[in-house]
Amino acid sequence: MSTEDAGERDTGTQDHVCAATLRRLERASGGLAGASITAMEQRLPWFQRLPADQRASVQLVTQTGVSNFVAWMQDSSQSIRLTAEAFRNAPRDLSRWVSLRQTLELVRVAIDVFEQQLPELAEKEHERFVLLEAILRYTREIAFAAATSYAAAAESRGAWDARLEALVVDGIVRGDAEESLLSRAAALGWDPASEATVLVGNAPSDDPPTVVYQVRSKAARIGCPVLLGVQGSRLVVVFGGTGDDRHNDEIALGLTEAFGEGPVVAGPSMPSLADAHRSAADAMSALRSVVAWPTAPRPVPSADLLPERALAGDPEAERQLVERIVLPLVDAGGALMETVDTYLEVGGVLENCARQLYVHPNTVRYRLRRVAELTGRTPSNARDAHVLRVGLAVGRLAKARGLW
């Protein structure tokens, strides 16, 4: 190539570097990369502690970046492609053991080395300033490419975590208690020793990412771990408890604010995530039945919907009613069951109940207090009276079938 041809080509480049300088850059690229790695080892203690294979990966990225700088000097319009290529050729797990902050430290060290050595490669005096300006512009592109690469890696991990979390929540709802479910939850940071309670209700939005953000923001303010899944219009949240029922109720109340309109049901707290499918089963059954109790609180415990669940044909609700209402009264003697049954039949009028049983009203009062102590339900309370009435009816049906 003649000098005139080279001059014509030089004027076509944005940085006006002559062909001789470009050749010097090409010959010096290996030395620049080596000097950069040496400087990194000297200035960055954490880089010295990296295993040999990881340092080699960083060296590969550095060498690619230097080579691409020479190509970029020839055609600066290729800056985005060339800088992205430097990180595309890096190992896929590079971002796991070198953080973005550390990557920027590496870029800063490389800039210092380039600023010291590049001016000596200039063929002409004015090209010294051109090269310095060029390396600053190029490393700016490198920094943006690094940030983009790390952001893409973070989004990829976030998408994978979201899919894994959806699998865990779906497994809990379907009743899977496999070891794989627990290992997946552990990979998401769930504490195996933590209690697990399931909340179900309507999602506040049709956009799953928005729902996830709202729930996680609320959980972060409350300070509790959560696993969540959006299943159509339904939102399922599994939160970790502390063993304190009052605190768990406060958590459930706080998380309820992240749900959409309509009822929210809380299943019973389970000792671990392995038993969370039982909480989910109760919560799902209660959510299907809560329409029968229009004034139900929000959130409403699934145990408070036992009558509605039993009327809807839930055998688990029937079993719980028998165990919680009927059997304690039977074990305490027939007088308590007869008293509460009569009290409900006469509409909750204590004197009428006493006349029916031929006892003093104080005796009725005492027996009703015993009923409340044994069942947790106060017969004079309208809602509790409904639970007792349905429980007694379910108990009679179960006894007729020989179930107790």
From TrEMBL:
Superkingdom classification of source: Bacteria
Family matches, as InterPro entries: CdaR-like_regulators, CdaR_GGDEF, PucR_C-HTH_dom, PucR_C-HTH_sf
A Pfam family the protein falls into: HTH_30
DNA-binding as UniProt keyword: yes
UniProt keyword list: DNA-binding
Domain CdaR GGDEF-like, first and last residues per copy: 175-288
Domain spans labelled PucR C-terminal helix-turn-helix: 336-393
Coiled-coil ranges per UniProt: none
GO molecular function, one term: DNA binding
Family listed: Belongs to the CdaR family.
Name of this chain's protein: DNA-binding transcriptional regulator, PucR family
